[in-house]
């Protein structure tokens, strides 16, 4: 069996070591004679898995004690609805940055519940703070630190005064160190940098819990979830377990400082190569480029199909860009080894030599 380099944006590659570990204990978890996916979420086996995963995540990210960590269904998108339901009453105003497809989805959903003020809008550069239109009475400020489709990333935390700052970190969580105390709430779908799909992680400051609208569906109320340790109903246990293995893998790798260094090096290599070539192009302003998702186009779009076919045959999978933007995209999350990026660059060089 050969493992290929999979550049999918999500669900994405998982660390091979983690997959091997899960495989080894698939039928018999720690001598119980059962798979961890076959046992009760309230039983003693899964309780250990659940607690360790939370403990390791807190450790990795340095999550302060006054934050709850929730392991929920519904991925990131369910929080698009949960956030306004938990933090606003009808008629309230909320601030959203619009920097791409995911920002837009989040603010469109919020618009069903509250008045959305767009703070700033741009998809290939982070707008300068001097142009931001923050509202005085917003209940919170929402942004998408890493736009997975456009490849645009905030490399700083927006300064928004005393308003709770909310971040959709689906495609950048755990990719580098982060000061969690600057945020009111952080959320992420698991399938990019954490584990299999079916799981959403919510990290929320305690004072923001307990204010949901009365009509909020019970599963979307952070208080219900926090009071029940994310087990009001049956959580996605296998995804939670896999996330726990990924957290342990990250700790073995040296934590977020160490992985952040690797991630920056991987991204720099790829961007440096793209910038050195007249054949490949990335549209994002250099200081705002994503270190996780690298979109690029070919000078001759009629070669897109050949590029995809030949890269696929070379074991470089899922390089097709999102249908909304076209071109190519290489997602290089934590689990993508540096050799994967080297192999991609070597392929791109060859391809350019052949057709450029
Ligand atoms: C993938 C992604 C989402 C959607 O995640 P789901 O778990 O499918 O809801 C939302 N936001 C960002 C930034 C993403 O990358």
From TrEMBL:
The keyword Transferase is annotated on this UniProt entry: yes
Enzyme class: transferase
Sorted UniProt keywords: Amino-acid biosynthesis, Aminotransferase, Cytoplasm, Pyridoxal phosphate, Pyridoxine biosynthesis, Serine biosynthesis, Transferase
Pathway noted in the entry: Amino-acid biosynthesis; L-serine biosynthesis; L-serine from 3-phospho-D-glycerate: step 2/3; Cofactor biosynthesis; pyridoxine 5'-phosphate biosynthesis; pyridoxine 5'-phosphate from D-erythrose 4-phosphate: step 3/5
Positions bearing N6-(pyridoxal phosphate)lysine: 192
Claim: Cytoplasm is one of the keywords in the record: yes
GO BP field: L-serine biosynthetic process; pyridoxine biosynthetic process
GO CC term (a single one): cytoplasm
Binding, pyridoxal 5'-phosphate: 76-77, 102, 148, 168, 191, 233-234
Cofactor binding summary note: Binds 1 pyridoxal phosphate per subunit.
InterPro entries recorded: Aminotrans_V_dom (IPR000192), Aminotrans_V_PyrdxlP_BS (IPR020578), Pser_aminoTfrase (IPR022278), PyrdxlP-dep_Trfase (IPR015424), PyrdxlP-dep_Trfase_major (IPR015421), PyrdxlP-dep_Trfase_small (IPR015422)
EC number: 2.6.1.52
One of the record's GO molecular function terms: O-phospho-L-serine:2-oxoglutarate aminotransferase activity
Limits of the Aminotransferase class V domain: 4-344
Compartments where located: Cytoplasm
Top-level taxonomic group: Bacteria
Signal peptide positions (record): none
Coiled coil location: none
Cofactor: pyridoxal 5'-phosphate
Protein residues bound to L-glutamate: 42
Matches recorded under CDD domains: PSAT_like
Subunit field text: Homodimer.
Function in brief: Catalyzes the reversible conversion of 3-phosphohydroxypyruvate to phosphoserine and of 3-hydroxy-2-oxo-4-phosphonooxybutanoate to phosphohydroxythreonine.
Family under the similarity heading: Belongs to the class-V pyridoxal-phosphate-dependent aminotransferase family. SerC subfamily.
Protein name in the entry: Phosphoserine aminotransferase
């Amino acid at each position: 069996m050969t493992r290929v380099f999979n550049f999918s944006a999500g669900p994405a590659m998982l660390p091979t070591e983690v997959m091997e570990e899960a495989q080894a204990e698939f039928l018999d978890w720690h001598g119980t004679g059962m798979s961890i996916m076959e046992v009760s979420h309230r039983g003693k086996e899964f309780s250990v898995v659940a607690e360790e995963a939370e403990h390791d995540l807190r450790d990795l990210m340095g999550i302060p004690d006054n934050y709850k960590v929730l392991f929920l269904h519904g991925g990131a998108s369910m929080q698009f609805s949960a956030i306004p339901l938990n933090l606003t009453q009808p008629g309230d105003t909320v601030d959203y940055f619009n920097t791409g497809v995911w920002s837009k989805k989040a603010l469109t959903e919020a618009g069903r519940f509250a008045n959305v003020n767009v703070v700033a809008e741009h998809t290939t550069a982070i707008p300068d703070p001097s142009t931001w239109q923050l509202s005085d009475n917003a209940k919170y400020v929402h942004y998408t630190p890493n736009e997975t489709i456009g490849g645009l990333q905030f490399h700083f935390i927006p300064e928004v005064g005393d308003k709770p700052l909310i971040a959709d970190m689906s495609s950048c969580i755990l990719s580098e160190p982060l000061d969690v105390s600057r945020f009111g709430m952080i959320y992420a779908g698991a399938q990019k940098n954490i584990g299999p799909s079916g799981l959403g992680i919510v990290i929320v400051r305690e004072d923001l819990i307990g204010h949901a609208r009365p009509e909020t569906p019970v599963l979307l109320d952070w208080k219900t979830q926090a009071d029940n340790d994310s087990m009001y109903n049956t959580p996605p246990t296998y995804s939670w377990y896999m996330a726990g293995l990924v957290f342990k893998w990250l700790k073995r790798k040296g934590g977020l400082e160490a992985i952040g260094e690797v991630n920056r090096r991987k991204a720099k290599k790829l961007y440096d190569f793209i910038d050195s070539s007249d054949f490949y192009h990335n549209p994002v302003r250099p200081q705002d480029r994503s270190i996780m998702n690298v979109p690029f186009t070919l000078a001759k779009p009629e070669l897109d199909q050949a590029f995809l076919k030949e890269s696929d045959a070379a074991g470089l999978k899922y390089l097709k860009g999102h249908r909304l933007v076209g071109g190519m995209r290489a997602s290089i999350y934590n689990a993508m080894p540096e050799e994967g990026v080297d192999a991609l660059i070597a392929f791109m060089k060859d391809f350019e030599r052949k057709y450029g």
